[in-house]
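User: I'm new to structure prediction. If I give you an amino acid sequence, what do you actually give back? Let's try with this one:
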Amino acid sequence: MSRYAWAPGYTDDGDRPRIVTSRFQYEDGYTLDRSLATGGYVGLRAALGRTPSEVHDEVRSATVLGRGGAGFPAGTKWGLTPQGVWPRYLVVNGDESEPGTYKDRLLMERDPHQLIEGCLIASYAAGLSQCFLYIRGEMALAQERVAAALNEAYAAGYVGKNILGTNFSIDIVLHWGAGAYVVGEETALIESLEGNRGMPRLKPPFFPAAIGLYGKPTIVNNVETLSNLPWLLTNGAAAYTAIGTETSPGTRIIAVSGHVKRPGVYEIINGSTTFRDVIYGEEFCQGIRDGHELKAFIPGGGSAPWFLPDQIDLPFEAKMVGPAGSMLGSGAIMVMDETTDIPAMALTLVRFYAHESCGKCVPCREGGTWLMRIMERVVAGRGTQRDLDQMLEIGQSITPGQYPHAASERLGLAAAPFPFRMTTICFVGPSAYNAVDSALTLFPDEFQAKLMKRTSIPVTAVGADS
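Assistant: Good question. You get back a string of structure tokens that encode the predicted 3D arrangement of the chain. For your 466 residues, that looks like this:
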């Protein structure tokens, strides 16, 4: 067994299908030689042997859901570009930056040719003129591996002009980001590609499929989404949909972090694998560390509302998790055991999102900072009851009228399924509040315990009447 099977972040146990991680077991899985020896570019050859519309229909019928967070079907997204408008572009979102998420980085480091092949298939099927592969600035090894793989692919005739002797020609441009969380949002990523500050655009009218990069129709797909395409074109839509459920076919990569015995990246069967399977399964995380009990978990990365242990049997299925009050997001499960200081955990997340606000939206720019300052005061034992109420009121200015947890009813606001309304262009502002609302409403006793430690000198809450 290769050392990569047990490298930090990936395990290779059980008999689960391997759609996108089959080469992780090889030390040289990132090379062209290993790719070709294990079926690399077979899917591209199959695609080029068919018409673009046939390939598009294959992807559409397979219901390949986006793996970047929104879960929008890739084949449907490709069909949203306006007819007769050229050129049109493919932008690959490799700016993985959600707390707890690191599966796209491994895909780029361990199997970059699979991603490149997916880019070629998508460009061929959707009639795209050029591909831009945007990789997060901090991912140095991923950048190096993708750059080397692109050089190999160009030299072998898989990228460039008249690919594999056909009339299909396309270039792939590698772009390194500067490291900004908000650029994970597709319109902010497009702004960054154009040389502007990474700030999200209003939608509508700026849906990228209609008006995207350089004002032209643009398809933005996630790294994992595109990495599914080579297997799909090699094996067919019927084989793909035979895995998983009707509404969530195929597999999905998840990243598990926190208080489990074996954190890492796992490729699971989509739609049917439960959170219990992942956290306690022998082929996955093998339970909570040090014999402790599960206290809470975040099902979809740091921006998602939290779940309690009684929700552990929910499947990894958006139509089940959404009505329960959270989201699958980027596929990151963050596990907290009974030793977790809940207010401190919430502060860690709030501090991240407040820092990463681009500043375009007032509720996010100001509200996130206020939440951070109040939380710092509470965690330090200097908070008041007014501080706790103030945080819920700030949340109403960011996500008006709706909260993910029923305990917020003390403000007269009913709990609502995810997603809920927001006053910001993108999800950074609500992300800062989600951690506060989850912690404060699910674990109110821990906040009251913090209040008991406050000093004799009261501290006026931010925004409170003096």
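You can read the tokens as a compact description of the fold. Here is one thing that stands out. The longest strand covers residues 251-258.
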